[in-house]
Amino acid sequence: MTNIVTPSILPGFNEYLPEDQILFNNMMDTIRHNYESFGFLPIDTPVLEKAQVLLAKGGGDTEKQVYRFSKGDTDMAMRFDLTVPLARYVAQHFSELSFPFRRYHIAKVYRGERNQKGRYREFYQCDIDIIGNGSLAIENDGEIPAIICRTFRDLGFDDFTLRINNRKLLTGFYRYLGIEDSLSVLRIVDKLDKIGIEKTIAELEELGLSEDSANRIMQFIAIEGNTQEVLKALKALEINDELFSQGVLELEQVVQVIELFGVTEKDYKIDLSIARGLDYYTGTVYETTLDEYPEIGSVCSGGRYDNLADYYTKQSLPGVGISIGLSRLFFKLKEAGHFKDSPKSLIKALIIPMGDNNNEAISLSTKLQDNGIACQIYLESGKINKKFKYADQLGVEKAIIVGAEEVETGLWTLRDMVTGEQEKLSENDLISLLKNV
Amino acid sequence: MTNIVTPSILPGFNEYLPEDQILFNNMMDTIRHNYESFGFLPIDTPVLEKAQVLLAKGGGDTEKQVYRFSKGDTDMAMRFDLTVPLARYVAQHFSELSFPFRRYHIAKVYRGERNQKGRYREFYQCDIDIIGNGSLAIENDGEIPAIICRTFRDLGFDDFTLRINNRKLLTGFYRYLGIEDSLSVLRIVDKLDKIGIEKTIAELEELGLSEDSANRIMQFIAIEGNTQEVLKALKALEINDELFSQGVLELEQVVQVIELFGVTEKDYKIDLSIARGLDYYTGTVYETTLDEYPEIGSVCSGGRYDNLADYYTKQSLPGVGISIGLSRLFFKLKEAGHFKDSPKSLIKALIIPMGDNNNEAISLSTKLQDNGIACQIYLESGKINKKFKYADQLGVEKAIIVGAEEVETGLWTLRDMVTGEQEKLSENDLISLLKNV
């Protein structure tokens, strides 16, 4: 007698039943299709890397979450994002790549975070980045969000908002106000939504800013309106700072390019309050929210950085990229009932032999397959109701019944599994009909 | 100054340049498409599992190769195949699944094997299995190889051989000869190709078999011919053993079903010499070789088993399945020059703006994308030759030149990157042409 071990997975890890996996894969396929359509090339790096290489940049909180271990003498770690492996990949294969190097990477990453609902320790990221060799045109900063807008539209979201800002503009503004420690200011301003205006001003004054400076900051981040209004208001501030001016110019160029790529103000807006982390991005930054599901927060973020891989190479590799956190997005959408009417079967029909007609059913399935019709055949014995129940459980829309009468007459019974309606069809008619379902 | 860490990956691990990754993904997509077309459902289990669960079955060589480690109090391990996770999944979600449960799983597995060429420590398996609840019709054993044949044909292999045998037939035969320890005999016979006939007979006699029995074994495994000849020869042996007869009957049923599924003797054969491992499979067994690349060995193997998950559940879960070892197959095919004429780009055209016409080029790219034409735009400054070189490196077949003349006349220049030929086309003609490339 075998000892039975209770089957279960690790806390914080996740797997879906097939009907949800189909929906998840649909989203992943749509994202991949969009990425590929814009010339992004696939890469697939190892999940396990040398710890020394993966953690070359070191760094606080993330490092504690990394799954790191030794086997023999080898110190290894599981990747915790797709950016560090990209940096390593580009540095390692530099001479074999063509620049600008556009890559997409859709894969699992691992973080031993505190276990909480919808935050997984193993989750998918869907990244695109464009890496330049020495330089990278600003137009790329406008193409990336355009691709994301097209992707979300293809995913079935008509209403979303892609927010754009520019870090140079922010840094220049604060520098002009005589604020040397702009990082601390950004850190406080970044929390505005959470802590409110008053507390933000108080924290800014605690930093040593004058009341006037704190108020100017609040005025600045309160700038709103459509793209042209915001750009006009920024220029009207008359901030005499080179970095600020460069940031405004970049923002102006980026929104122009976005519109040339077919994105309208319905889908994007300039939002001066977003800063996206505080040390990585150096120019354009993006966040995306779904208007229907504001509670999800940003579903897609990214931006421009000066140097992808300074820990691995002396080459200057500026880039711009964005990432969709698919696992969390899917979890939240499912929770919100987003998929309740989605189809859950990948086949057109289940073929159900009755009585002793397995062979005829198999021959029919072969003809359907030869015509490119995805189908499955139920080969187990049993009563018709058991077979229909199986078809229902699979969520398949049509069943084809192959019984004695069908074999004799050469007319197959096609049953609509939703309505229960049945019709008799010749093989050719059946094939034409299913090809066009 | 940042310290530079040399970028490299772990020995035994692997990653491809994008042009190879595209070819790899093409194969993976073809396999997935075939699996889905036959009603196999996707699952995606965690790479990391509880060590106690993953290694419940325990067992020798594999266990030493497993990447196993602790984080906090948790003892975890990376999956080393897709069968154990399937067993765990089916046992865990038993009440939520419909049986027969058909699942496919295409994913990476991890084995810290001795490092050797073409044997990776991280590699893809592409598995399908059909799991019954209590019983599973023998017809399923004939469908699985038919799906594999269709898959290999879609992968572009016209000449391959799927070899079929039956373990019951083998066990019954040896039992009839009075051999109790049929496992030892099978183990010796399994090496026939490696050690030759004489050494095989010698080893059999060492086991304590009579010369007559050893000779009868050699006669048995020498049976050859087409399907009907082999089946006739098996029956002519007049082995009066129930298990043997059942095995022959199953084999007969399986080959009949295979043919109904559209597979001819060009693609499959009965091969009494294969046994596929020695304790897991209990009925039908399969191996597949590519006629053009015999040196690769079996590229796809599997078979029937009595009980998938007896370590996790008391439910009886008979099944049949097969696995394609895609990473090794791809490595070997690439080594053999199989892909030398394969296209390496996923886009239809690279749009190349000349002079100051980035905006016009972007507008054009938007129109192409709106028409479902995958394209990329080269946004960096530089001379035309640099831009053509980039197009060549990408392996893209067409370039669209957007210069002052094109913008003025409204006729775009389409360049064939292979021949260097150029033609001028209106936007509509360009779109029609690229849609049909």
Euclidean distance between termini CA atoms of chain A: 50 Å
Number of domains of chain A: 2
Strand arrangement within the widest β-sheet of chain A reads 1-5-6-11-10-9-7-8
Structural class of chain A: alpha+beta
Strand content of chain A: 15-25%
CATH class bucket of the largest domain in chain A: Alpha Beta
Largest interface: A-B, 101 and 102 residues
- Alpha-carbon Rg of chain A, integer: 28 Å
- Major sheet of chain A, described briefly? 8 strands, mixed
CATH superfamily of the largest domain in chain A: Bira Bifunctional Protein, Domain 2
**Rough outline of chain A:** elongated
How many separate helices of chain A?
A: 17
Query: What's the pLDDT, averaged over the residues of chain A?
Result: 93
The CATH architecture of the largest domain in chain A would be: 2-Layer Sandwich
The number of distinct β-strands of chain A equals 16
Estimate percent helicity of chain A.
40-55%
Instruction: Kindly report the CATH topology of the largest domain in chain A.
Output: BirA Bifunctional Protein, domain 2
Oligomer: homodimer
Unreliable parts of chain A = none
Summarize the structure in words.
The structure is a homodimer of 437-residue chains. By secondary structure, chain A is α+β, with helices and mostly antiparallel strands. The first copy, chain A, folds into 2 domains: 18-335, 2-Layer Sandwich (BirA Bifunctional Protein, domain 2); 349-435, Rossmann fold. Chain A is built from 17 helices and 16 strands. The first copy, chain A, has helices at 18-37, 51-54, 60-65, 83-92, 139-154, 167-176, 182-189, 192-195, 197-206, 211-221, 227-236, 242-260, 326-335, 358-370, 384-394, 404-409, 427-435, and strands at residues 41-42, 48-50, 68-71, 74-78, 101-110, 122-131, 160-166, 268-270, 284-290, 300-305, 319-324, 349-353, 375-377, 398-402, 411-416, 422-426. An 8-stranded mixed β-sheet of chain A has the order 1-5-6-11-10-9-7-8. In chain A, helix 14 (358-370) links the parallel strand 12 and strand 13. In chain A, helix 5 (139-154) packs across helix 12 and helix 9 packs across helix 10. The longest helix of chain A has 20 residues, at 18-37. Chains A and B meet through helix 1, strand 1, strand 2, strand 3 and strand 4 of A and helix 1, strand 1, strand 2, strand 3 and strand 4 of B.
